[in-house]
Automatic annotation (TrEMBL):
<feature type="compositionally biased region" description="Low complexity">
    <location>
        <begin position="27"/>
        <end position="44"/>
    </location>
</feature>
<feature type="binding site">
    <location>
        <begin position="107"/>
        <end position="114"/>
    </location>
    <ligand>
        <name>GTP</name>
    </ligand>
</feature>
<dbReference type="InterPro" id="IPR005225">
    <property type="entry name" value="Small_GTP-bd"/>
</dbReference>
<feature type="binding site">
    <location>
        <begin position="184"/>
        <end position="188"/>
    </location>
    <ligand>
        <name>GTP</name>
    </ligand>
</feature>
<keyword id="KW-0251">Elongation factor</keyword>
<dbReference type="Pfam" id="PF00009">
    <property type="entry name" value="GTP_EFTU"/>
</dbReference>
<comment type="function">
    <text>Catalyzes the GTP-dependent ribosomal translocation step during translation elongation. During this step, the ribosome changes from the pre-translocational (PRE) to the post-translocational (POST) state as the newly formed A-site-bound peptidyl-tRNA and P-site-bound deacylated tRNA move to the P and E sites, respectively. Catalyzes the coordinated movement of the two tRNA molecules, the mRNA and conformational changes in the ribosome.</text>
</comment>
<comment type="pathway">
    <text>Protein biosynthesis; polypeptide chain elongation.</text>
</comment>
<dbReference type="InterPro" id="IPR000795">
    <property type="entry name" value="T_Tr_GTP-bd_dom"/>
</dbReference>
<feature type="domain" description="Tr-type G">
    <location>
        <begin position="98"/>
        <end position="386"/>
    </location>
</feature>
<keyword id="KW-0342">GTP-binding</keyword>
<dbReference type="InterPro" id="IPR047872">
    <property type="entry name" value="EFG_IV"/>
</dbReference>
<dbReference type="Pfam" id="PF03764">
    <property type="entry name" value="EFG_IV"/>
</dbReference>
<dbReference type="InterPro" id="IPR009022">
    <property type="entry name" value="EFG_III"/>
</dbReference>
<dbReference type="InterPro" id="IPR009000">
    <property type="entry name" value="Transl_B-barrel_sf"/>
</dbReference>
<dbReference type="GO" id="GO:0003924">
    <property type="term" value="F:GTPase activity"/>
</dbReference>
<dbReference type="InterPro" id="IPR035647">
    <property type="entry name" value="EFG_III/V"/>
</dbReference>
Length: 802
């Protein structure tokens, strides 16, 4: 089919460009044929007796309604389709859920996420005036509620809000009030976990791109994250008012660099300072934004002469792109017909939900243009909660994946995806997947087995909240006073289901930290505990030798922000050490060991003999301990001590004292003394054996390799390449734009400390860079040698001090 479509493309493009704008006919059905993870098993699965496949649900066969749907969903994630769930939904509930959208806004730094969200809140009547990010009125945008965010003009924490969008469908004339739960996420890579957790619980997303910057490094990261969680998206090219804005170049880059086909559903009427409005090329209408802050949307059939040809051309491109991903449009095309507006709109929705396509909207949030049609796009093309297949794991059935049913009348299942300390205690954000959450009701924490009361239930509006009595399936809310960890599943106590949590990246840098004065220790400890609870990428540990507190995070900015928050929010000034790279250690060869610990010089002695081998596991992941003892040469209780010794050695590797990755130890022989052997002796013997064998097994130091993107005006190209070469970077790609230059490469993290000031100096403050963890790789031999020598010297000095 695809090949034929390609062959006919040129001919059809011509045809479509000349075709008259079709007259809208009543919309028949906008229901998608396929959804993101829509199951393929047909409903006829119900013909088989349930008890044959799932004894748990034996007896439920005769039940009808919700029980039958739940039983079917419990057969496995693929046993039921979203259409089947929706078709049997109570009409009132269906009416409610069809009008809900849970969406996130994600993009590269400074693309205008917060600025666009501010407009969304204004146009939906949630706020009554617009304040800009770094605006002259010093108020700051609603969603950047922290002082630090307003001062720095960056989003640090994702913020949730909700709003209602009254919409009259232009094709059917149907009027509806849509309830939109919206999460604005930070753009900076150091706060990427905020994007991860938002995407984990949202049903759809708006990806914002800059009309000048195009596809930037962080756009690629966000693209990856959206794919990781199967999140359908619409795209919005912002900043059309900027000099050099070129939305079609951006779409070309999207098609080249992102792994999802994209095509415009709008074209601009003018760009830069001539931006006047946009043309909706699905319905072929010109749209202008008038009145205070563009609040009045004026639509006309008169497309300005200057963009008429462009609009026709881009409409053909849109149809061609859809024909590649949607059979219905492909067929229409092969028959040399032009799809109707209804067919086009339905195809865009189908393809978007099936993750095969992203429709591209455009405008300028700052110039108050294009935001309302983008909101209409959220309604038209992003899924309601019932159109997304959400799954859980059944702990009673070997973690089998089962489907969740977004009915209010189903048993409650929710995920705590974000925690925040507030003046009223811990605030826990929950996405309700199934059933209802009620104020003063009870829920059970699956991890701890504890029953907890829900004393207060709220909807969040940035840092403000609105009390509610209950929250239905498919919605997002927050509860107060519930002790839990981020990623915990809550149920009604009857279910054995758990929800998979989000991906948490490993921290890559760490530094020693302590309060300046001792009387701040209590506050310091409080702050540490809170930050750790709220942010899974911020870790706190204690160095067992120096007793120093070590904090680890995703980058210099991440750590800097926490140190600053400690000062502002807890009145604790801190002294920090130099940032350190989180190196790792591993072995590259298999070696055997046979080690005896023997201290038997009068009185109670120590005796333990351990023998076996250590080897690489083949993956730089968890370490493994294997009990290979046959015949009882080491007693079972001492084997456990051996494992403890091995794990302790892995926490503090023999080369540098950094964590060990990917090592397997097998203990297959040993000896025990009736009197002198003890758990302690076996633990110590294993540690000693590990220390020696580790080095014999050609141990190496691994360092975090970062994926780096550096952008600056083109004149600094040479300087940037020089800076990266000096850091032994592998330069993967360079891009020279009209007047800017971007370099993509991989660099060892240790070379990147202090890079922001070096870059600033080399580019007159005009260069920018982003970096994110890519992988662990062996450090260069010379660097390894230096690190090991330095570590050994420090250890000797410490020894002397003792
Ligand atoms: N010219 C122009 N500037 C814009 C537009 N939208 C936003 N900006 C400016 O771009 C800067 C960044 O905007 P934000 O809304 O903070 O961007 P963001 O994506 O939320 O930023 P982070 O969350 O820090 O990544 C601000 O100075 C805005 O005023 C636009 O449409 N046109």
């Amino acid at each position: 089919m695809k090949a034929r479509v390609h062959l006919l493309r040129r001919h059809c493009r011509q045809f479509s460009a000349l075709a008259p704008v079709p007259r809208p006919t009543p919309l028949r059905s906008l229901a998608p044929r396929a959804t993101t993870t829509a199951a393929s098993r047909p409903q006829s699965a119900l013909r088989y007796p349930l008890s044959q496949r799932c004894p748990v649900f034996e007896g439920i066969r005769n039940q009808s309604g919700v029980a039958a749907v739940l039983a079917e969903a419990a057969q496995g994630a693929d046993s039921i389709t979203n259409e089947s769930i929706i078709s049997r939904m109570d009409p009132k509930e269906l009416g409610r859920i069809k009008n809900i959208r849970n969406i996130g806004i994600a993009a590269h730094i400074d693309s205008g996420k917060t600025t666009a969200t501010e407009r969304v809140l204004f146009y939906t009547g949630r706020i009554h005036s617009i304040h800009e990010v770094r605006g002259k009125d010093s108020v700051g945008a609603k969603m950047d509620s922290m002082d630090l965010e307003r001062e720095k003009g960056i989003t640090i924490k994702s913020a949730a809000t909700f709003c209602n969008w009254d919409r009259k469908d232009p094709l059917t004339g149907e009027e509806n009030k849509y309830h939109i739960n919206l999460i604005d996420t930070p753009g900076h890579i150091d706060f990427t976990v905020e994007v991860e957790r938002a995407l984990r619980v949202l049903d759809g997303a708006v990806m914002i791109l800059c009309a000048v910057g195009g596809v930037q490094s962080q756009t690629i990261t966000v693209d990856r994250q959206m794919r990781r969680y199967n999140v359908p998206r619409i795209s919005f090219i912002n900043k059309l008012d900027r000099m050099g804005a070129n939305p079609f170049k951006v779409i070309e880059l999207m098609n080249q660099k992102l792994k999802i086909p994209a095509a415009a559903v709008q074209v601009p009427i003018g760009t830069e300072e001539h931006l006047k409005g946009i043309v909706d090329i699905v319905r072929m209408k010109a749209i202008y934004f008038e009145g205070l802050r563009g609040i009045q949307v004026k639509e006309t059939d008169e497309i300005p002469e200057s963009v008429r040809e462009l609009a026709n051309e881009k409409r053909s491109v849109l149809i061609a792109a859809l024909a590649d991903v949607d059979d219905e449009i492909a067929e229409i095309w092969l028959e040399e017909q032009t799809p109707t507006v209804e067919q086009l709109r339905a195809a865009i929705r189908r393809a978007t939900l099936a993750l095969k396509f992203t429709p591209v909207f455009m405008g300028s949030a700052l110039a108050d243009k294009g935001v309302q049609p983008m909101l209409d796009g959220v309604i038209d093309y992003l899924p309601n909660p019932a159109e997304i297949k959400n799954t859980a794991l059944d702990r009673k059935r070997d973690e089998m994946s089962v489907a969740l049913v977004p009915y209010n009348s189903a048993p409650f299942i929710g995920l705590a995806f974000k925690l925040e300390e507030s003046n009223f205690g811990q605030l826990t954000y929950i996405r309700v997947y199934q059933g209802m959450l009620k104020r003063t009701g009870f829920m059970y924490n699956v991890r701890t087995g504890k029953k907890v009361k829900v004393p207060r239930l709220v909807r969040m509006h940035s840092n403000e909240m609105e009390d509610v009595d209950n929250i239905g399936a498919g919605e997002i809310c927050a509860v107060f006073g519930v002790e839990c960890a981020s990623g915990d599943t809550f149920t009604d106590g009857q279910q054995s289901y758990t929800l998979q949590s989000m991906h948490v990246p490993e921290p890559v840098i760490s530094l020693a930290i302590k309060p300046k004065s001792n009387n701040q220790s209590a506050n310091f400890a409080k702050a540490m505990a809170r930050f750790q609870r709220e942010d899974p990428t911020f870790r706190v540990s204690q160095d067992s030798e120096t007793q120093e507190t070590i904090i680890s995070g995703m980058g210099e900015l991440h750590i800097e922000i926490y140190v600053e928050r400690m000062r502002r929010e807890y009145n604790v000034d801190c002294i920090t050490g130099q940032p350190k790279v989180a190196y790792r250690e591993t072995v590259t060869e298999t070696v055997t060991f046979d080690h005896t610990l023997k201290k038997q010089t009068g009185g109670a002695g120590d005796f333990a003999r351990v023998a076996g081998l250590i080897e690489p596991t083949g993956e730089l992941g968890d370490n493994e301990f294997v009990n290979g003892i046959i015949g009882g040469s080491i007693d079972e209780k001492y084997i456990f001590a051996c494992e403890k010794g091995f794990r302790a050695s892995c926490d503090k590797g023999p080369l540098l004292g950094h964590r060990v990755l990917g090592v397997r130890m097998t203990v297959n022989d040993g000896a025990t003394h009736v009197v002198d052997s003890s758990e302690m002796a076996f633990k110590t013997a294993t540690q000693q054996a590990m220390r020696k064998a580790f080095k014999d097994a050609r141990a190496i130091v691994l360092e975090p390799i970062m994926r780096v993107a550096v952008t600056s005006p083109a004149e600094f190209q040479g300087a940037i390449v020089g800076l990266m070469n000096k850091r032994n970077a592998i330069i993967e790609d360079t891009e020279v734009g009209v007047d800017d230059f971007t370099l993509y490469g991989e660099v060892g993290l240790h070379g990147m400390f202090g890079f922001s000031s070096v870059l600033r100096a080399a580019t007159q403050g005009k260069g920018e860079f982003t970096m994110e963890f890519l992988k662990y790789s062996p450090a260069l031999p010379q660097h390894q040698k230096e690190l090991i020598e330095k570590h050994e010297k420090e250890m000797k000095e410490k020894e002397k001090e003792k």
